[in-house]
Specification:
about 200 residues; nine-stranded antiparallel β-sheet; 11 strands; globular; about 10% helix
Length: about 200
């Protein structure tokens, strides 16, 4: 059951003897894909880990078992990929990257690297935050937005729209560079997503 307002998230369990520890969002997504959603996986790095509190495992005998949503992502090639943290689509570097054109972030986590992109993002609320930067926003404003994004103070902004979605398809005028959980996924003119609530558990 996805988390509700005021609800306790997760539960304490004894530390498993066969614990698998991963250190990035992409590695966690890989560990939880292919029907392995019930694997005993702990995360110790990445943006989802930071969103979940960034707690070190150490030698604790008891860990927190946290339910999370997974996101099915489909690009132009038709392949379905699993995301745990975020999907970012932008122009290629030779066209200006994040500094020109549209930028779209699908946020299951709160952070993308050092940027607090979705301050309201939660990995177990049954939805993702769809964050869109209008392509008409100029370079100077983008630099200012980037500075404020480090503290999550970039919202509200007339050039940024944020909406919660559970299933959605974003279409672009031409293929953009897509990264899923920080890993390159190629170029695509569409990004289709479907949230799977309570699809997996992560240990912290």
């Amino acid at each position: 059951m996805t988390i509700g307002k005021g609800s306790t998230w997760g539960s304490a369990i004894p530390r498993p003897a066969d614990l698998d520890v991963v250190h990035s969002d992409a590695d966690l997504a890989e560990a939880l894909s292919d029907g392995a959603e019930d694997a005993q996986v702990a995360i110790q790095g990445g943006d989802l880990w930071r969103t979940m509190g960034g707690r070190a495992l150490g030698d604790r005998a008891e860990l927190q078992r946290m339910p999370i949503d997974l996101v099915d992502v489909t690009l132009d090639d038709g392949a379905v990929r699993t995301s745990v943290a975020h999907v970012v689509a932008r122009e290629s570097t030779d066209r200006g990257g994040i500094w020109r054109g549209p930028v779209v972030a699908v946020m299951n986590a709160e952070w993308v690297g050092e940027f607090d992109v979705a301050p309201r993002g939660h990995p177990n609320d049954g939805r993702v935050e769809l964050v869109r930067l209008d392509p008409t926003v100029g370079l100077r404003q983008r630099i200012a937005i980037g500075r404020r994004m480090r503290t999550g103070s970039h919202l509200p902004h007339p050039g940024i729209t944020v909406r919660p979605v559970r299933q959605h398809t974003v279409e672009f005028d031409r293929p953009l560079v897509v990264r899923i959980d920080g890993r390159p996924a190629g170029r695509s003119a569409t990004v289709s997503l479907r949230v799977r609530p309570d699809a997996a558990h992560v240990l912290t």
